[in-house]
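lol forgot to send this yesterday, sorry. struct tokens for the thing we talked abt
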């Protein structure tokens, strides 16, 4: 992925221009490019900087949707779970979950629901659900409290690394000749006879403005879709409201170093909460708090952290406290107001809207269904723009890095998949890059250099938050790594000492947001 090469191509005339480089936009770029469309994508910040790096990291049908009887949504998401586990085995994998039951009546109820979940998954290759005795349950999750435990249901779902999947999608799109760049913002739309035909974009690195022209323009800006719609048509009704979801990250000992996740089925506010082992830590969340503040870097609050701790502690052998929290992160959910759209596809969790100008907006859904959303939105965009390309070809398209002989699970280089070989070659050629950034995290100096050369990382934050997940795993270790990351990046990107200091200042601001207010 070469940003300069992408910028140089933006004066071409594209079939499809996608605005937004989160799950939805990147998925759409892959779908369009794999159909043979001339495709461009611009992302105002870094890929997955907004909601798409802040998920619970589950590739799932959504067990709780079953309770609401939303069978078709669950089936569709489970189908996509199977696709993703096959297409991106380096960033997504099977994860066993335990759902503890404390009343005799709960076990058959949960078990029946999870058996239905298995059936809806069809040919998924994941093991079926089963009931465990308290003893078996504690053997699998030693950190699970035995107090009052009657049994537990073990079921399987998927887990992934969201920001790494975003990188894999961006690279897959580029491999299919898409022009893809981060830090390029769509400022306003261009029109031809009242129809949207492109955008005026700004390169946030150089400050330069330029036009990008395309037959179809897709607004995939997640929580920001209404801002773009308002630029196109100030009278456009708002499609979204927003809610904040916070997670905390604690040491893996919280679950007794288990490789299984825990699902708490009923929280105080009638939700579910997950505690999942992830990159040698445990991620616990999430909250669901309505907010009118649509910000790219929402900060978890101390109240949310306390709520998560109070909710999970009764299920653990050793109670967690605030001092166990190594990092916290919050993301905003785009909640779709279906009545606001006249053209919305009503039967899905996601929404596709076509404005009178022809601007196609896609939002809602979840990471798990990004591919289906992409297929649907490119179908609509192709129809709107009269493109005559092949149907979607992504259901079985391996993503960049997928392949045989992957590094084993637990190897920090596994998320690179087959590209891990290039990283190993780098450390062999430059032994000075073989050391860790910080003893508390598995990341190597070589990953910084690789991120700058091949993954379009431009800032210390890009490297520590999304190319590696340091900031999401351990804020203090990420802070301690920042000076070395700045130095290595400066050398790669031809920057000076002033740039390094500015990067450290900017990263300090972001790191402060990863500690609860
Ligand atoms: C707390 C939480 C937990 C979740 N957990 C899960 C989970 O476990 N599993 C799951 O499947 N899903 C989960 N989801 C849902 C999933 O994360 C989202 O559906 C998905 O990330 C949305 O992606 P997106 O691309 O639509 O939006 P975003 O990721 O927000 O991307 C939109 C992008 O558009 C860019 N942009 C905005 N304006 C412009 C502009 N003018 N020009 C260019 N670019 C612009 C932004 O910078 C941003 O990067 C979760 C969501 C939340 C909030």
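and heres what i got for the seq, position by position
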């Amino acid at each position: 992925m070469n940003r300069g090469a992408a910028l140089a191509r933006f004066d071409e005339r594209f079939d499809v221009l996608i605005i937004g480089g989160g799950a939805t936009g990147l998925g759409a770029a892959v779908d369009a490019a794999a159909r043979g469309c001339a495709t461009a994508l611009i992302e105002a910040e870094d890929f997955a900087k907004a909601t798409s790096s802040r998920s619970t990291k589950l590739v799932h049908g959504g067990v709780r949707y079953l309770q609401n009887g939303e069978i078709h949504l669950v089936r569709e998401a489970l189908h996509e779970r199977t696709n993703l586990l096959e297409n991106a085995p380096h960033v997504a994998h099977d994860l066993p979950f335990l759902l503890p039951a404390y009343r005799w009546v709960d076990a058959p109820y949960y078990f029946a629901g999870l058996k239905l979940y298995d059936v809806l998954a069809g040919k998924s290759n994941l093991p079926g659900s089963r009931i465990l005795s308290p003893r078996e349950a504690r053997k699998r999750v030693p950190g699970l409290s035995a107090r009052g435990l009657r049994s537990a249901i073990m079921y399987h779902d998927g887990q992934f690394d969201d920001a790494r999947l975003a990188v894999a999608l961006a690279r897959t799109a580029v491999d299919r000749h898409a022009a893809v760049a981060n830090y390029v913002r769509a400022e306003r739309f261009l029109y031809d006879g009242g129809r949207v035909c492109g955008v005026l974009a700004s390169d946030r690195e150089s400050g330069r403005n330029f036009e990008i022209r395309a037959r179809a323009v897709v607004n995939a800006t997640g929580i920001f879709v209404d801002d773009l719609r308002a630029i196109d048509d100030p009278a456009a009704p708002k499609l979204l409201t927003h809610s904040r979801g916070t997670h905390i990250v604690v040491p893996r000992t919280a679950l007794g170093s288990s490789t299984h996740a825990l699902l708490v089925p009923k929280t105080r506010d009638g939700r579910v909460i997950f505690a999942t082992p992830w990159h040698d830590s445990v991620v616990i969340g999430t909250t669901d708090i309505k907010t009118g503040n649509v910000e790219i870097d929402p900060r978890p609050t101390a109240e949310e952290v306390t709520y998560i701790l109070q909710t999970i502690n009764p299920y653990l052998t050793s109670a967690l406290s605030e001092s166990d929290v190594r990092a916290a992160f919050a993301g905003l959910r785009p909640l779709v107001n279906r009545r606001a759209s006249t053209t919305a596809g009503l039967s899905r969790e996601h929404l596709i809207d076509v404005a009178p100008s022809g601007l196609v907006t896609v939002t809602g859904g979840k990471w798990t269904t990004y591919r289906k959303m992409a297929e649907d939105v490119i179908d609509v965009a192709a129809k709107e723009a009269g493109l005559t390309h092949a149907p979607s070809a992504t259901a079985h398209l391996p993503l960049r890095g997928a392949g045989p002989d992957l590094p084993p699970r637990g190897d920090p280089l596994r998320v690179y998949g087959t590209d891990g070989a290039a990283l190993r070659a780098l450390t062999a050629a430059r032994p000075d890059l073989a050391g860790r950034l910080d003893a508390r995290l598995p990341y190597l100096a070589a990953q910084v250099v690789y991120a700058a050369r091949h993954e379009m990382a431009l800032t210390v934050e890009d490297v520590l938050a999304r190319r590696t997940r340091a900031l999401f795993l351990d804020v203090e270790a990420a802070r301690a790594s920042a000076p070395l990351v700045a130095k290595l990046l400066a050398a790669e990107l031809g920057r000076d000492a002033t740039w390094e200091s500015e990067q450290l200042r900017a990263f300090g601001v972001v790191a402060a947001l990863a500690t609860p207010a």
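The radius of gyration is 22 Å. anyway ping me if u want another try
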